[in-house]
Structure formats: structure tokens, C-alpha cells
Write a structure and sequence with these properties.
CATH architecture of the largest domain: Alpha-Beta Complex
Strand content: 5-15%
Structural class: alpha/beta
Number of helices: 10
Number of domains: 2
CATH topology of the largest domain: Spore Coat Polysaccharide Biosynthesis Protein SpsA, Chain A
CATH superfamily of the largest domain: Spore Coat Polysaccharide Biosynthesis Protein SpsA, Chain A
Length: about 325
């Protein structure tokens, strides 16, 4: 089965057209399918539109959040409740083209586990959207070692088994290919069509660049030190303690060799501050080692609260 996941936030004007386009494509594929809409706290009449679609088509499933939790939480809810062995997320603003879904599936059939869309001819503001996106994609590719042109493109295809254990927070949905690569997934990228927005207002802005960079730092930390946090905290702590020892040695040299009074230099203060900071880093590393023991037990905790569903059995949540 193919599960198409569509996070929705104030996209009432686009939903019926998106449904018609997606269903037209999915029916031609010849495989069982479901279309899961996640209403991420919309304040317009998106929920009424979605309930109408679910009422006339039982293959349409709707999850309504109690409030806005963000696109990452909506993506995770869709993955949690998807029954298909292939997951295809896409935006609800009609900028992604459902006609690209068969091409993503064809690429999966070539032996890949993740196929990422690349908005090669992107129809967005070149300064506010495209340029920051290019910079962010370059940084992400360099830091992660997973080289993609367009991490921000929502239109992707995943085999369910490579992402079923992934838990995401913040704005980390764009980093799913990186998480999949940790499990040995084969990743490909293909150009996809990108349409200009016709209805509604974009929810993205320049502020997302900072969020992406901060989330990337978290991803890099998790990839290197998630199972051994003491390595980074301890290394920083030892480096700071070394600075403290150097400052102390220099202060003693000035005192007994040069005859310079200790209180006439800032070195004693540096010794104390660096020493305390070094020990604090090491203690934080020990605390992190204790917390990491419960890390995997906490993976079943969701980052969203569901207020209402359509055609969804709540007891079928899959971890």
C-alpha cells in the first residue's frame, strides 16, 4: 500500500483540487493507497473541507491536531498512522505536483530506499526563499555528508521500514534522509515539478534559516555523540581544565620568577573560572550518560495531541 501524507495548515482553498489531482494519479498506479491529511491546527475551514473529503472517500483519512504543532509533528503523525509500506509526504499548497509520484515510485523500484524531490526550477521568491534555501542545503550537505540539492522539498518517497523508528522534533522533517542514511538506506534524488502558489499565504520565511542551522547542530550531535555524550562534554571539560592549568602555571612563573603579584593579573580569576567550567562540563557529561540510558525508552512519546480523527483507528498506532 502507498500512503500519501499531507500536512495542512490553513489551506482550505487548495484541498479539493489537491484531492482530485492526487486521487487521479494514485488510481492509475494500480496499487492500494490511502491519502492522509493532518490538520495542523488550521484556523480557517480546512477541517470542514477535509471531513467532507473523508465522508465521500474512505481512502481519505484525517487527523486533526488540537493546536498548531508544526510540520515536523504533522509528518510524524502521518508516518505513525500510515498503513502503507511506502510513505510519500507532500505539501498541501499545490506547489508539489502529484504527477511526480509515479516517478518517485519508479526510482524506488530501482533499489533505493529514499527518493528525494529536487525543485530544480523552483517557483518561489528568489531572495526570501530560494537563496536562503540554497545556502542551507549546501551547509546541510557539507555537515551531514548526505549530498542533496533540495532538503526542503517535501515531496519524497520512503520505504516505511527505514523511517519507522525515527522520532523527529523541531523542524527536523527535512533531515529524514540523513536519519535514514544512518540505517544504511540507499538515497536518490530526482528533479520534480514545482508550481507557483496560487492560493493562500506561504508559512515560511527567513527565520527558518536559523532554525535549520540549530537543528542541524542537533542532528550532527546525535549522529556523532548520541550514544556517548561524555566524549564531547568530557573533551570540552578537559580542554578548559588544561587552560586553567596553563593559566595557573603562568601565574606561578610570574610570581616567583618575575616577581609579579598575583592580584595584579587576571590569571588567578581565569584559573578559578576555567577550573569550575571544566569540572561542570565533565559533570554534565556524566549526567548525559545517565540520561542516555533512558533515551530509547522515551522514543514512543509523541510531540502532538490529537483532538479528532476520520477513518483512523487510534489503537493502530505503530512505533
Amino acid at each position: 500500500m502507498i500512503s500519501v501524507i499531507v500536512p495542512v495548515y490553513n489551506e482550505a482553498e487548495n484541498l479539493e483540487a489537491l484531492y482530485e489531482q492526487a486521487v487521479s494519479v494514485l488510481k492509475r498506479i494500480g496499487q492500494p493507497w490511502e491519502l492522509i491529511f493532518i490538520n495542523d491546527g488550521s484556523t480557517d475551514n480546512s477541517q470542514e473541507k477535509l471531513e467532507g473529503l473523508a465522508e465521500k472517500d474512505e481512502a481519505v483519512k484525517v487527523i486533526k491536531f488540537c493546536r498548531n504543532f508544526g510540520q515536523t509533528a504533522a509528518m510524524m503523525a502521518g508516518v505513525d498512522y500510515a498503513e502503507g509500506h511506502i510513505i510519500i509526504p507532500m505539501d498541501g499548497d499545490l506547489q508539489n505536483d502529484p504527477q511526480d509520484i509515479p516517478r518517485l515510485l519508479d526510482k524506488l523500484e530501482q533499489g533505493f530506499d529514499v527518493v528525494s524531490g529536487w525543485r530544480q526550477d523552483r517557483k518561489d521568491n528568489p531572495i526570501k526563499r530560494n537563496l536562503p534555501s540554497m545556502v542551507a542545503n549546501g551547509i546541510i550537505s557539507f555537515v551531514s555528508g548526505v549530498h542533496l540539492h533540495d532538503y526542503g522539498c517535501s515531496l519524497k518517497a520512503y520505504r516505511k521500514d527505514v523511517i519507522k523508528g525515527v522520532r523527529l522534533y523541531g523542524e527536523m522533517h527535512r533531515f529524514i534522509p540523513i536519519y535514514a542514511s544512518w540505517f544504511g538506506a540507499r538515497i536518490a534524488e530526482i528533479p520534480v515539478v514545482h508550481h507557483p502558489r496560487q492560493n493562500g499565504v506561504s508559512k515560511y520565511g527567513l527565520s527558518r534559516v536559523m532554525k535549520v542551522i540549530l537543528d542541524l547542530m542537533v542532528v550532527k550531535f546525535l549522529s556523532k555523540y548520541a550514544g556517548k555524550p561524555m566524549y564531547i562534554f568530557g573533551a570540552v571539560g578537559l580542554a578548559i581544565l588544561f587552560i586553567s592549568l596553563l593559566a595557573g602555571g603562568w601565574a606561578i612563573y610570574l610570581k616567583f620568577i618575575e616577581g609579579v603579584s598575583l592580584i595584579s593579573t587576571p590569571l588567578p580569576l581565569l584559573v578559578v573560572m576555567a577550573g569550575v567550567s571544566g569540572f561542570m562540563c565533565i559533570l554534565m557529561g556524566l549526567l548525559a550518560e545517565l540520561l542516555i540510558r533512558t533515551y530509547y525508552e522515551a522514543q514512543g512519546k509523541t510531540v502532538y495531541l490529537i483532538g479528532k480523527t476520520c477513518n483512523i483507528k487510534l489503537h493502530t498506532l505503530k512505533g
